[in-house]
Amino acid sequence: MNTAVLPTITIDLVLDRLTTKDVLHGVLHAILFHRLFGTIKPQTFEVLDVTMPGVSDPETERLVNEKVDTFWRGIEGGASKRGQIIVTIAEKKLKKNWFSIGEEEVPWEQWVINAELRQPKTDRDRQTFQANLASTLTKTIHTIITYTSSERGRAVVPPITDATTISPFPFKVVVKVGNLEVG
Fold first, then answer.
1. Helix (H, G, I), strand (E, B) or coil at 54
2. Would you state the torsion angle of the CA atoms of residues 114, 115, 120, 123, taken in this order, to the nearest 10 degrees?
């Protein structure tokens, strides 16, 4: 059993109804852009005048849209206006036990996007809110780039043994609203 501490990178966002989907879409794409190690076709997204990197791949697009929509439905339909989107990246390792040999997924990194929905009351509040959110997005991109290019961020990546797919490592995206998994 791996007893090492799983590196967890946390991103805190305060969102409004108008920008929730676009912001979460952009942040998820930015994380995947920096952590899918296969051959990808890059794309960019403009969110509140912040350019965010993304992955142009139908399966990735479907997954991101599905998880963002799940988050939105959970926030809209529930009492809690707080939730998380958790991206866990793993590697496949051989698992040996008494009678068989199989594979297990061993996580090596986790990204936690904490999101809270708030609604500005006036137009002036909305302008201030969106300016602050744009600043937060810029800091988020900086955090992603700084971590993934740091020695620590590179050291956690296991050896890449299969470069034929968009991601040589299995990854999972989980949506939680009010500490309950949804979707």
1. strand
2. 100
CA 48 to chain centre: 19
Tell me the pLDDT tens digit for each residue of 153-168.
999 999 888 778 888 8
Distance in Å from the first CA to the final CA of the chain = 30
Over residues 71-92, the mean pLDDT reads 89
Cα→Cα distances 11→105, 121, 140, Å: 24, 25, 7
* DSSP state, residue 125: H
Enter the tokens of residue 147.
Answer: 């971590």
Give the Å distances, CA to CA, from 157 to 51, 110, 141, 161, 170: 26, 12, 20, 12, 12
Residue 70 tokens read as 């799940």
The position carrying tokens 């994380």 is: 31
Give the residue among 30, 131, 135, 20 at the shortest CA–CA distance from 81.
Answer: 20
Model-wide pTM > 0.85: yes
**Helix pair 20-35, 58-77: axis angle to 10 deg:** 140
